Amino acid sequence: MARRKSEAASETPAEGAAPAPAHKGRNNLIPAVILAIGLAAAGYFFSSSKGGGTASAAPATPAATTPTTVAEGDIVKLDATTLNLADGRFLKVGIGLQLKKGIKAEDYTTKSAKALDLALTLFGSRTYAQLADPKGRSDAKDQLSEQVVKAYGGEVTRVYITEFVMQ
Prior knowledge:
Structural class: alpha+beta
Radius of gyration: 33 Å
CATH superfamily of the domain at 70-166: Band 7 domain
Number of strands: 4
CATH architecture of the domain at 70-166: 2-Layer Sandwich
Helix content: 40-55%
Mean pLDDT: 74
Largest sheet: 4 strands, antiparallel
CATH topology of the domain at 70-166: Tetrahydropterin Synthase, Chain A
CATH class of the domain at 70-166: Alpha Beta
Oligomer: single chain
């Protein structure tokens, strides 16, 4: 009988030991629900805000300086290419050509070499520091756009930078 009492004693919890919690998973549910509600409220707040300020109208430009508008057609996106910058770093650049209305985009799959050559020459002559500066990058893009428009005889109206990664 002594044996049975010791076996029975080992099956019951020892005195002073805390019983196991009955609903262990519920303790994590409340903070998770509160966090989800907070994130949803923050997302709604930031997506529906109007920026807080009112936008002022831009001053009208004189008619003499307004450029003539050209009806624009398709945009041809050229494959990105990687090139060496003047200081030995790398640039991966992709460009898109805005075509004049009526020009077929299919024709520019074979005519894209001129635009890529101009981009390689222009960006390859710049350094990382020059292109890291927003003004320098904007100036390079404007210069490339002018060169490409001139090289294609007006069939291309502007150039877009679709990819720009420097290392």
